[in-house]
Design brief:
By secondary structure, this protein is mainly α. It is built from eleven helices and five strands; from the N terminus they run βββαααβαααβααααα.
């Protein structure tokens, strides 16, 4: 059934298939996804609570980490509850506007996450290359402004996705062969010329992710140069250790995200099942890994969690 408005017609709802090809295993596949989602929610809420309550962590690195944790909560919660409903309860139908909202949250907060990782790379660059000026360069005011710019960029750049799709006619087919609504997957159901939409999607991807990766790359080249000039081997090891967790988080986000983006547009020979698995990994694994990586590798957070669990004062 189609609804009409603003010169366009759209279905009342879409059908999300979940993981095509593994329908018989949906019930069991949901368990590891549920565990990862619970770990992601619990871990990121813990990170936010620790940073909020421990005033010694009100520093640029941890404020950016709090932004990352909040972004991960939104990103994972925008897809996983519906995905678990599909896998466990066969709730395949998603209302049209709910689908567009999901498209918006997925892409907007993926952009925000990329921007936060860029800001964290800049923080590491200033901390290692200009240690004596770090607190004067990255003040709380500057951190808040950086976070605001990253958030506004994500919201403004992604909003046209939903606006353009909402004004286009859809074909009778309303089946989306994956577990959530994603821009390119929804666009394939449109019965009109989508070159403008596809072109804008490429522009957003390259202007956001491309810019962030360039800034991250330059930051780490400068960090590497500064670290290699340190006279003490112990100091070099400590500096590398400080950056190791951030590099792990960057790889966990960008590798599956770029694979998903490229296969949607150019990877027609890639098996659909592989694409679906990577699409789910990209939205669930980074939010799960980020609090684990930072919680284990960051001594200040680890100590603060231990103090909280033991009921000790800082």
């Amino acid at each position: 059934m189609l609804a009409s408005g603003n010169g366009s017609s759209h279905p009342m709802s879409f059908i999300l298939l979940g993981i095509p090809g593994l329908e018989s295993s949906h019930f069991w596949i949901a368990f590891p996804f549920c565990i990862m989602y619970v770990v992601a929610v619990a871990g990121n809420i813990t990170i936010l609570h620790v940073i909020r309550t421990d005033h010694t962590l009100h520093q640029p690195m941890y404020l950016f980490l709090a932004m990352l944790a909040l972004t991960d909560l939104v990103l994972s919660s925008s897809t996983q509850p519906k995905m678990l409903a599909i896998l466990w309860f066969h709730a395949h139908e998603i209302e049209y506007h709910a689908c567009l909202i999901q498209v918006f949250f997925i892409h907007a907060f993926s952009s925000v996450e990329s921007g936060v990782l860029m800001a964290m790379a800049l923080d590491r660059y200033v901390a290692i290359c200009f240690p004596l000026r770090h607190s004067s360069i990255l003040t709380t005011s500057v951190v808040i402004k950086l976070g605001s710019v990253v958030m506004v960029r994500g919201l403004l750049w992604v909003s046209p996705f939903c606006f353009m799709i909402s004004r286009m006619p859809f074909c009778p087919n309303k089946v989306i062969p994956q577990s959530y609504c994603e821009h390119m997957a929804v666009l394939k159901l449109v019965c009109a010329d989508t070159r403008v939409n596809r072109g804008y999607g490429l522009f957003v991807a390259f202007s956001v992710v491309g810019f962030d990766i360039i800034v991250i790359g330059i930051s780490y080249v400068m960090i590497l140069r500064a670290v290699l000039q340190l006279p003490s081997g112990e100091a070099r090891l400590k500096a590398f250790g400080t950056c190791a967790s951030h590099i792990c988080v960057i790889l966990a986000l960008y590798v599956p995200a770029l694979f998903t983006f490229l296969t949607h547009r150019f990877g027609h020979q890639v098996p659909h099942l592989v694409h679906i698995i990577f699409a789910n990994v990209y939205l669930l694994v980074p939010p799960m890994l980020n609090p684990i990586i930072y919680g284990v590798r960051t001594k200040q957070i680890r100590d603060s969690v231990v103090r909280g669990c033991c009921g000790k004062e800082p």
